[in-house]
Amino acid sequence: VIYLTRNGVQQLYSLTTESPTLSRAELPPPADVKLRALYDISPTKAKEYDAMTRWERLCLMVAANDFMPEWLREQGLTVDVFSLEELTNDAAALLRLAPGLKAAELADWQGRDINRKVEGGRAESTLWRKWTKKQKAAYKEIVG
Predict the structure, then answer these.
(1) How many Cβ atoms sit within 10 Å of the Cβ of residue 65?
(2) pLDDT tens across 66-90, in order?
(3) Is 39:45 a contact under the CB 8 Å cutoff?
């Protein structure tokens, strides 16, 4: 199993502003079912799932970066963990995972800035500043 993680601040930005499914007020039922399943295997529970806000539930998805690979290993699977940022910036790491890729095409793909239209860029510090105090507190409590 290859488990792909993301920078948590950037992931929440994508989920809440870029995803047409998850950017609405209420989570669609399939997403809620998946998040409830993550809650069930999460080692720490800040509060009951039904009492969590939509934002807190999405923070739970980010928190899974820490506990999901180990949970999968406990199920007897071999799990390699890579971050999206690592694979989009390190051609050698991506080529080890997918040796059939052509290095020249990969370099071109990695050189593209898919988020160049985002005002202020997608630096973690820029996105963090846009969050409310309540959002930051929930993130720290659930994700760490």
Answers:
(1) 18
(2) 899 999 999 999 998 988 777 777 7
(3) yes
> Tell me: the pLDDT tens digits for 36-52?
999 999 987 778 999 99
Q: Are 77 and 1 in contact (CB under 8 A)?
A: yes
Instruction: Report how far residue 67's alpha carbon sits from residue 57's, in angstroms, rounded to the nearest whole number.
Output: 15
Alpha-carbon gap, residue 11 to 55, rounded angstroms:
12
Residues in the chain: 144
pTM (predicted TM-score): 0.73
Asked if pLDDT for residue 120 goes beyond 60, the answer is: no
Which of these, 142, 88, 118, 112, lies nearest to 17 by C-alpha position? Answer: 118
